[in-house]
Amino acid sequence: MPLMALRERLNVLVNSMFLEGLLDQQFRQLQMLQDASSPGFVAEVITLFCEDSERMLTELTKLLDQAVVDYQKVDAYVHQLKGSSSSVGAQNVKLACIQFKQFCEENNKEGCLSALNMVKHQYYSLRSKFDTMLQLEQRIQAYDSEQQN
């Protein structure tokens, strides 16, 4: 697929993510930090966000599986996930975390379980699009490398 077509697919994907509310302006800020000296910057940030999010979601699931829930620990993980979501512009994940934090403050286990499911849903929706985005980025970089050689 020609380079221009790949770039167009990537732009369409990112624009659709904004329209769906998956991303906010913070993601545009990340994109502006990427330049010729760091062509993989956005991909690296997305990869780290996904790795951290997976780890936090696993920990949250374990914590909420306990008979006696440590809501302070749950809240700390939710706060961390909210922060990393904000830093990459993952708007829907961030908003779901805000709701989750409310249930933590109320020590509401059923609310927390429901909120965890919503956070997971929002995260996996975003993750799927991020995976496609990273694949397109890799193909664009490979194409650019071929053109330079």
TrEMBL record:
InterPro entries (alphabetical): AHP1-5/YPD1, HPT_dom_sf, Sig_transdc_His_kin_Hpt_dom
Molecular-function GO terms, alphabetical: histidine phosphotransfer kinase activity; protein histidine kinase binding
Gene3D superfamilies in the cross-refs: HPT domain (1.20.120.160)
Subcellular location: Cytoplasm, Cytosol; Nucleus
Swiss-Prot/TrEMBL GO biological process terms: cytokinin-activated signaling pathway; phosphorelay signal transduction system; positive regulation of cytokinin-activated signaling pathway
GO CC terms of this entry: cytosol; nucleus
Modified residues (Phosphohistidine): H79
SUPFAM superfamilies xref list: Histidine-containing phosphotransfer domain, HPT domain
Sorted UniProt keywords: Cytokinin signaling pathway, Cytoplasm, Nucleus, Phosphoprotein, Two-component regulatory system
Domain HPt span(s) in chain numbering: 38-143
Pfam families according to UniProt: Hpt
Principal subcellular localization: cytoplasm
PROSITE patterns (UniProt xref): HPT (PS50894)
UniProt note: domains: Histidine-containing phosphotransfer domain (HPt) contains an active histidine that mediates the phosphotransfer.
Purpose: Functions as a two-component phosphorelay mediators between cytokinin sensor histidine kinases and response regulators (B-type ARRs). Plays an important role in propagating cytokinin signal transduction through the multistep His-to-Asp phosphorelay. Functions as a positive regulator of the cytokinin signaling pathway. May play a regulatory role in salt and drought tolerance during plant development.
Name this protein carries in UniProt: Histidine-containing phosphotransfer protein
Species this protein is from: Musa troglodytarum
